[in-house]
Amino acid sequence: MSTTGPTGSAAPAAPAHSPGTSGRMRRFAALVLKESTQVVRDPSSILIALVLPMILLFLFGYGVSLDATRTRIGVVMEAATPVIRDLAASFQASRYFEVEVGQDRRQFEDRLILGEVRGIVVIPAQFAAEGAGRGTPTIQVIVDGSEPNTASFVENYAQGVVSGWARMRMTDVTGGTAGQPAISVEQRFWFNPELASRNFLVPGSIAIVMTLVGTLLTALVVAREWERGTMEAMMATPVTAAELLAGKILPYFLLGLASMTVCVLVAVFVFAVPFRGSVLALYAVSACFLVPALGQGLLISAATKNQFLASQLAMFTGFLPSFLLSGFLFEISSMPEIIQYLTLIVPARYLIPCLQSVFLAGDIWAMFLPHMAVMLAIGALLFVLAARNMRKRIA
Amino acid sequence: MWRTRLRALIVKELLAILRDPRGRMVLIVPPIMQLVIFSFAATLDVTNVDVMVLNRDAGRWGVELIQRIEGAPTFNTVATVDSLDALQAGIDEQSAIAAIQIGPEFSRDIAAGRPAEVQIILDGRRSNAAQIVAGYLSRIVNTLAREVAPANPNIPDLQVVPRTWFNPNRIYQWFMVPNLVAAIALLVGLVVTGLSIARERELGTFDQLMVSPLRTHEILIGKVIPPMMIGTVHITVYILAAVYVFGVPLRGSLVLLYGSAMFYLLAVIGVGLFVSALSATQQQAILGAFLFMVPAMLLSGLATPIDNMPDWLQPITLINPLRYFLEIVWGVFLKDLPPEEILADTIPLALIAVATLGTASWLFRRRME
Question: Do A141 and B161 touch (CB under 8 A)?
Fold first, then answer.
């Protein structure tokens, strides 16, 4: 009897038929499965990916609004002539103002200081007299400059009420076109004729939510693995660095798309933001954005290897720039030139116009394609940096 | 005796925060960069915008109008397009925020004394900026209209004279930089408090602290005072920068500002301790702080006014410490609010501080027993 049975030689043959690619595929599939299980099991991942986006979207949708509707103002009638009453009534009829009428500006001045009213419109006693004869009747609008944006809107809306009233009155008096100015301006706001700031803020905030999921969540989770040393353990296995990165990223990539989907559903069905583009474009631009967002998270975690520091850096280089330097709320063209250059490396800057267009305008591939290319380029750069950082650590 | 113990604890805390290079970095670099970048970037002003012109008028008035738009300082480039398709593509792709369309009859209408019309097409995807641009363009057109047809002597030319209190030139930084004073104190207060508890937890020294002769409230005081000191330093740096770098007028009393700032910091640190007491791991503490900070910033009037929020949401801002401190910084910097008004905003801060510190202390004590 020989010591080697017939089965002995068959045993090593089994792995021999799966060399190279298919082994790598199996390894990679196992890795993705492991990472996905980890994500699903960790309640904080689900919290960040699904609950936090909803909370943020509700906050942005309801809490952040640039529409100064129903601004409280005081209207001072220094005399109660019919003309003055008529003008004051126009202010009361305006949908932008909540008007309190008084006889003396002093009764509103203190309240303007306290911020209880945002403006005072003073119609002088001689207004009617002047209006009847020659001269220039002057209406004073006092606004609270401590909030400059509200101040400008109160002034513009007040101006609008006064000129609208004047035009109506002229038409009433002369019965013709005398009230009409020599050149009239017709304004057309495309894509958002109702001028609701929510219609562009909600799509923009989806970019911020995706930054959070992509950058903050990835940075935190991977930093925790570095802290615990499980990352080094993984690197000691036959898995290559690229496979490891890809395996880490894939579940978060899908999670990012999932939270984007949740956000879009909320935007359309709760906030009634119109959706005029295609689902394909939505996923294409979002997928391109997740590449730099995840790359940034990985880079932060590889560079810090510490949860606390990673969360701070993710906040400071991810969340805040996508909120403040992306054109979400503040116009990039109004910023100083140096900061405008800085915004060029903020990935959200490229996503936000695409999202706003997908929702409000439709598919504008002439704009999407270059923006997608830039996002992918930034993403590639970040991945290269992250991979180098990891290798350095091991060497 | 307890005084020595407490002092030792405070010194230990400060050393722990300041000796750690990461802690130092987090405390120094981001706040300064935030001040520099965000005070310039966070502006709702609209300047340097790109617009387009489609002029189908052959006469002189169309050219005149375009020249006036080109001459206005607000516009960066005024591009000329020659077809409606090009105009539409330009708006679609956001190469311009507004397009001015002058029809073929424009000059003829003016010459004949008929009412002429100009169309302005604006990008509603940025409706806030677009509205402001529409205002600029309308003003230019109206000025031209007044010169074209001198006012009918029978029709009085109504004038609205605006006057802006507190900030006559409506400089946005006068609004934003004081806001950042309040925001940075929130950020730093939460981070330092969270960091100090998290570190103890990570190293397992929190239990040691609990079994030391220190009483719970002493531990709490030891944890509150160092972030207060660091927060005060940050507030001071920001106030100095606001006044000397950004030229924001400081019209009210510095004493009132610092007095109320102490209560604000107490309230913020109370929230930080409360979040730390609730969370079991560092990750939870970080997320918890974040979950407080973002709503606090958004629902405070920092980015957009509370008045613009829906009515049912506004009461929620009443438990937000940042909301009250923003009123105080605006009041002290720009408005010189009377002391009783500052006090009226400080009392809620004190109440929030008592509530959060009390709950945190109860949670820590319960954990110990």
Answer: yes
Q: Provide the pLDDT confidence category of residue B323 given band limits of 50, 70 and 90.
A: very high
Compare all CA atoms of chain A with the CA of B41 and give the residue at the minimum distance. A335
Domain residue extents for chain A: 32-63+195-394, 71-174
Domains of chain B plus CATH, in order, are: 9-42+169-368 (no CATH), 49-148 (3.40.1710.10)
Q: What is the pLDDT of residues B265-319, one digit of tens each?
A: 999 999 999 988 888 777 778 888 888 988 998 899 888 888 888 888 889 899 9
Measured CA to CA, the distance from residue B297 to residue B284 in angstroms comes to 20
Per-residue pLDDT reduced to its tens digit, A247-274: 888 888 988 999 999 999 999 999 999 9
Nearest CA in chain B to A356: B125
> Quick one: fold of A71-174?
abc type-2 transporter like fold (3.40.1710)
DSSP type of residue A145:
T
Q: How many CB atoms lie within 10 A of CB A52?
A: 22
Decide: B158 and B241 in contact? Cβ < 8 Å: no
CB nearest to A170's CB, from B155, B294, B299:
B155
Contacts of A191 in chain B (CB under 8 A): 123-125
Tell me which residue of A85, A140, A174 sits closest to B153, measured CA to CA: A174
